[in-house]
Amino acid sequence: MVRPSSSHYAPVGGHASPAVGRRPSPFSSRRVHPALLVLFLVAAALFLVPHYSLSDTVDGSTAEQNAQASTPTRWGRIGELVGALGVLRDAQPAAVAPKPRWPECLRRRQLSREDHKHRVAFLFMVHTAETLEGARQTVETLWDEDDLFVVHADKKMNETVVQQYRQSMTVCGNVEFVSDDDRVDVRWGKFSEVEAEIALVKHALRSDVPWSKTVLLDGTSWPRLNAKKRQTWLSLWDSALENNGTGPAPVPVCTPECGRPVNKRGWGVTCGDCRRGPARCADDECKTLDLTPGGAHVRKDHQWFLLTRDMAEYAVAGPDFDEWAAYFTRVHASSEHYFVTLQYAQYPTLGKLPPPVYVDWARPCKTHPSTNGAHPCELGIRDLDSIRRGDGLFARKIRMNETALKTALINGEEAAVDLSRPLDSAAFLD
């Protein structure tokens, strides 16, 4: 099990024994002398050095304002320290707060505000300590103050590990975790996968970050492109959307032969993916289905979606949300159907859009242990050329320790990352 670095753990502080008899004077106790010296040095430093808040930006105007504002408050801060002397002699040693892996939320922008046209909500589904660490590495590689990052940790995960990562990763305000109350115990192939995705989207919609697009990822996802090329790719995706797609939309899973057997019980047995759910064609030409809201068709695609903000709002809060949610609770592997179906229910004439995530299904790879179903291939350095020839913002199924591939994809276009050790945000700061 991958654990965060030891800096996450807070040593348990010892408690001082209750005082017996008369309390010694702070000036006669040897224990106080070092504290007085430390307080004196801190007071001197605060007096001589201007004070800056960690939340301040690093532009010159803000720094100058802080420097000017700090002068009249130096003596006030020293007075507060001196006033604390009386409290110090009664205080008991406290547990040392854990040091976050990202030491400070320093303002960093990979792109200028003018170049950052598309602000993105990056959503991460993780289910193990390894995929959570993988997500952390990806978040730190992507991190920009203008984007949003939201993590859903499976309800089954070790709570101590989740809380340590939550404390570490949320130092920067635009990295957030889905609340414990909204976390889902995800079961593969069940509607719980969709519930976790819906929780991520709803969390992102409640955020103050004005993102325009959202993409679903996991802890094995890694960027194919640098920051500028991601913006270019998103602009091309926008153009495809405005032109109603680049080709035919994903084919509906139900076709004319999937009508209900006349005067018979049961479902058609030659209907492929249509058998995953209860709906069947409502007419001979299969223009509508019989159990879906408005008779809309069900479609199938990768679950790793890219949505505009209005698509996301429709999928989790649209007029037919409750009906669709109730329907998909009866569909196997509904995560491969839900968001793409809602996307085309909202835009029935929309064609195919470029896929946001590169996944290799072409080669014969291992099967899923619980179903013997197909499983996407895990990617390594040997797949570099294929990934670069592919499409999408990200490549998926890259393990955390695939250092060579991750470094090659970064390829000097973004700040280099030493993936052999826990990442440090300072490595990305200009």
From TrEMBL:
Query: What InterPro entries does the record tag this protein with?
Result: Glyco_trans_14, XYLT
Topology in membrane: Single-pass type II membrane protein
Transmembrane parts of this sequence: 32-52
The record ties this protein, via Pfam families, to: Branch
* Subcellular location, record wording: Endoplasmic reticulum membrane; Golgi apparatus membrane
Q: Which reaction does it catalyse?
A: UDP-alpha-D-xylose + L-seryl-[protein] = 3-O-(beta-D-xylosyl)-L-seryl-[protein] + UDP + H(+)
This chain's protein is named protein xylosyltransferase
Q: Whose protein is this, by species?
A: Rhodotorula diobovata
Upper taxonomic lineage:
Eukaryota, Fungi, Dikarya, Basidiomycota, Pucciniomycotina
